[in-house]
Task: structure prediction
Amino acid sequence: MKLPDKVGLIGDAIAMIGEGAVIMLGGFGVPGTPFCLIRELVRQGPRGLTIIKNDANEARMGVDWLLESGQVARLITSHVGLNPRAMRMMNEGAIEVEFVPQGILAERIRIAGAGMMGFVTDIGLGTPLEDGKNRVTVDGRAGILETALTADFALVHAARADCFGNLSFAASARNFNPLMAMAARKTIVETESVASLGALAPEDIHLTGSFVDHVVELSELPEVYGVVKR
Result:
């Protein structure tokens, strides 16, 4: 069986994202954030988006571009403290923000990719994090039912890919990216280089191409990535 070649144009890939889409954005601060895909999302302009990301990035980068363009209706994140625009829009009611502890956020995404519906934890018991959630008892212990978190699209950044979409992540960029790629219905990847099928060593593949729908090769990394050429 011949595996498909998933490499295509960035505009064609992002054009699949429509109004009101739920989008996961990989990255932990700068490392692993798909800035070029986000830039194209801003250029094409779908609105009413729900954005799921560990953080809201800083001013003038990443999520802040989407906030500035008025495309975000809801943000699911662990913190917004480095982004003054996100804090202002939240306080003004211009966007809805759901705060999720970082570990809980990662686990809700991970179990979605594993095909599970939820998990039980005692983190957040008796705090506002419990509001609106079901409390359950397991072996006499109280816990909160945290539901799986999925999305219509995941936008991720990889250091290397092959034409089928097998991915290799560099250093700390291997954070939320693999989890989100598994949890979303469609995954769009930007990568610094595309290799032929079989060129990546099996031990260097951090995510199988089975979870990837579209691969976009970047001609260069803009300054916002803050890295030197490897």
Remarks:
- DSSP finds six helices and 13 strands in the chain.
- The radius of gyration is 18 Å.
